TrEMBL record:
Region (Disordered): 1-36, 49-199
Transmembrane segments: 239-261, 273-293, 299-317, 338-359, 365-383, 390-407, 419-443, 585-604, 610-628, 640-658, 693-713
Protein name as catalogued: (wild Malaysian banana) hypothetical protein
Primary localization: membrane
Length: 763
């Protein structure tokens, strides 16, 4: 009799056989003290969100799971992942290890997961009982075992696998069973499971079930708190609401680029309205295309700020500065040609598979400063333009900050309307306020007409008030009066594109920077919506489609290329909606609105100071989203600190050197356009004028310099793969074993049937 009172004799009264010393198989599981609040989901959830795999660096990193911020006990529990769980088809299992928390249990306790060997007839409908017995348990020291028996706490872990057909989800994920068994049942591998069951108390915890029945084959589960996952259809009424909501929260990013570009190009208010309508059309079409044939993530495609700076460089080239007749159309055709060349390069980069090779060199340390600089580059435009009418710009900036920071937790009808609709609400309130100021005569000056600038150029007194009247009044735009109610944007509406080597070279390099921006957005979005990070094939497919989308933008003439809008990450986070169906419905509305000319005219009538105030917030958000990419690296690493800090500084210092050369023009450029005049007057002088223009222009762009410097330093300075965050971006053997988390990336069956030969079709 052992101290616990149970018999130590084997069957037939014979003493039990002496336990043999375990070999390398079966793997052993050491006992540990009962931990009532230990949740195995924490291990897998954290791993799935980050793609953590220390195998690359050979290091063991302890991290703190923050899956549920409200649960302090769970967030305080440290998890140590030594190896990844094997994927289907791997020959050698990888083993995660759970280290104890101080004061909660015994050290050196661990879990080793054996291979998931499929048995005959394995599947959701027919689970073999013998398959459950995959891992043996080494008997612990007798004294400790007896103490645990007396306390009723003995719960060694046994791993159960459902085989390749899975645990009812079709994903082959392993489940953990808490088993109480004696040494004899653990030694006899051939013993019938029903006999083992006499001495077992089993509780099954499925990593991916999330409370659903085993018969549910849906696989993908949205993160907690989300109203609709990527593949979910919330119903007609919620679909309409979520679709409109998503695009309203992105309003500033979708329509404000033409308010900057078109006046700089010499365009009229009517042309501004037409460009806005064209952007809505292209954005709607390309978003639907990306939802079906691209990365299939819930991301909006549209005119990106990545293309704004190079467009301003081309607009301010010397040959266009002194044009007076048809200046807008000349510049637009030049932009169209450059965008088409850069888009073809981007499409080839994606669909040829070259992007998969480039992904090995693009890591979070490269993406973070590159994206951040896209927003920082416009600091000279932001408040200098908004400050031209402080009466409306400062109230707008304050309203956006109050809504997004101080009132963000206020919920009405289950929606945080102040956080989600911060931009459209602020614009509507301040625009109405500006209308009352205009109607009340706040900007009326004796002898000066609101018809700016033609009627005031002859009067010195009126010329002093010209900027105030133009930026503050709500009745100076002629867009509403000139725009037609119905107008369908069409390709080549500005004329046939013109092609030049110098501008095309600039857009080729910029399309590469835009691809880097999209790579960071893909990964951040996938982790946010609880999907595995996209595989190289998915990323290549998405980049290829973005190139095709930019071709459409070049043909229709939006003035910029089309790419993934970075701010979409923030929108998904605050709306808690990631449904592709909602985005597709909203995109359909954009297409419909693009045919109504008055809608584009209404947006074109927004006072410029008001638009600049919104962009101060939007560009700041891009900076924050870019720097947040560093969370996937070891941010305290001196290597990363130096690389990111030096990149940010030099990306402003080098362009400042090129921008100090004064433009040779009889016209005085506005201060905010001077940095974009360096292409024609920079310090690079060779025998090729086109090459001089391209190189001076590229080195005056902050984001291009940031990308080049970060790319070179990150790939030449030694550093562990975990330190650099490589395990998230380029590891093909991720910790996640749930193949259903990759299913949302799959192309529709009919598309796969016709493009089975292409590498980018696969996952």
């Amino acid at each position: 009799m052992d101290p616990s009172g149970s018999s130590s004799e084997g069957p037939g009264g014979k003493p039990p056989a002496r336990p043999q010393k375990p070999g390398p198989w079966p793997p052993r599981i050491e006992p540990f003290f009962a931990n009532k609040d230990h949740n195995p989901w924490e291990l897998m959830s954290w791993a799935r969100r980050t793609g953590f795999n220390p195998n690359h660096s050979g290091e063991t990193a302890s991290v703190v799971s923050d899956r549920d911020a409200a649960d302090e006990q769970n967030s305080a529990r440290g998890l140590d992942l030594e190896r990844g769980i094997r994927r289907r088809g791997d020959g050698v299992p990888r083993k995660p290890e759970i280290e104890p928390v101080a004061g909660r249990g015994r050290t050196n306790r661990g879990v080793e997961i054996g291979p998931m060997v499929p048995g005959p007839g394995a599947g959701p409908a027919a689970r073999s009982e013998k398959e459950k017995r995959k891992v043996g348990v080494e008997p612990p020291a007798v004294g400790l075992k007896d103490e645990r028996r007396e306390a009723g706490e003995e719960t060694p872990l046994r791993i159960k696998s459902d085989g390749p057909e899975g645990n009812g989800h079709g994903n082959g994920a392993a489940a953990i069973s808490l088993v109480k068994a004696d040494e004899d049942s653990r030694k006899e591998a051939g013993k019938d499971e029903r006999e083992v069951g006499k001495d077992e108390r089993e509780v099954e915890i499925d990593f991916f079930s999330d409370g659903q029945e085993p018969e549910d084959l849906s696989g993908y589960k949205p993160p907690s708190g989300f109203r609709a996952g990527v593949t979910e259809n919330p119903g007609l009424v919620p679909l309409i609401f979520y679709g409109v909501q998503h695009y309203l929260s992105l309003a500033g990013s979708l329509v404000f680029i033409p308010l900057i570009m078109v006046p700089t190009m010499g365009g009229t208010d009517e042309e501004t309205a037409t460009v806005i309508s064209t952007m809505l059309l292209v954005s709607g079409i390309t978003t639907i295309m990306h939802s079906y044939f691209g990365s299939r993530l819930p991301l909006v495609q549209g005119s990106s700020f990545v293309y704004l700076a190079p467009a301003l460089v081309i607009i301010n080239s010397e040959e266009f500065r002194n044009l007076s007749e048809n200046k807008f159309k000349h510049i637009m055709r030049e932009l169209q040609g450059a965008i088409l060349v850069g888009s073809v390069f981007q499409a080839v980069l994606g669909y040829s598979g070259l992007m998969s090779l480039l992904l090995r060199l693009i890591n979070p340390v490269v993406v973070a400063p590159t994206v951040a600089v896209v927003g920082l580059a416009f600091f000279s435009y932001g408040f200098p333009q908004a400050g031209s009418c402080v009466e409306i710009s400062i109230p707008l900036i304050l309203l956006v900050l109050i809504f997004t920071l101080y009132l963000r937790r206020i919920s009405l009808f289950g929606n945080r309307i102040f956080l989600i609709y911060a931009v459209p609400l602020s614009v509507a309130i301040v625009w109405a306020y500006a209308f009352f100021l205009t109607a009340g005569g706040a900007y009326n000056y004796k002898g000066c007409s609101s018809n700016i600038p033609s009627s005031n150029i002859l009067s010195d007194r009126c010329r002093r008030h010209e900027i105030t009247m133009k930026r503050c009044r709500t009745d100076v735009s002629n867009a509403w009066r000139a725009a037609a109610w119905v107008r369908v944007p069409y390709p080549f509406q500005w004329g046939f594109p013109t092609f030049h080597f110098r501008t095309s070279l600039i857009m080729v390099i910029v399309s590469l920077v835009a691809s880097v921006d999209s790579v960071g957005t893909y990964h951040a979005t996938s982790l946010l919506v609880n999907l595995s990070p996209p595989t190289p094939g998915v990323v290549s497919r998405g980049i290829g489609l973005e190139g095709f989308a930019s071709i459409l933008a070049g043909l229709w003439g939006t003035g910029t290329g089309s790419t993934t809008i970075t701010e979409n990450i923030h929108t998904i986070d605050v709306t808690r909606v990631a449904s592709r169906k909602a985005l597709e419905f909203g995109a359909s509305l954009l297409i419909l609105f693009s045919f109504v000319g008055k809608i584009g005219a209404l947006l074109a009538s927004i006072p410029l100071a008001l638009a600049a105030s919104v962009l101060c917030f939007t560009w700041a958000l891009i900076v924050a989203l870019g720097l947040s990419t560093l969370q996937y690296t070891q941010t305290a690493s001196s290597r990363n600190i130096i690389i990111v800090g030096f990149t940010l500084f030099i990306s402003f210092s080098i362009p400042a050197y090129f921008q100090q050369y004064e433009p040779n023009s009889s016209l005085i450029l506005p201060s905010y356009l001077v940095p974009y005049g360096a292409a024609s007057n920079g310090p690079v002088h060779t025998s090729s004028e086109g090459f001089n223009f391209a190189l001076n222009g590229l080195l005056s762009l902050n984001m291009v310099v940031a990308f080049l410097v970060a790319f070179i330093l990150d790939n030449t300075v030694p550093g562990s793969r975990q330190e650099r965050g490589v395990y998230i971006w380029s590891d093909s053997k991720r910790l996640d074993t749930d193949s259903s988390s990759l299913e949302p990336y799959s192309l529709p069956a009919k598309v796969r049937r016709y493009f089975w030969w292409a590498k980018w079709v696969g996952l």
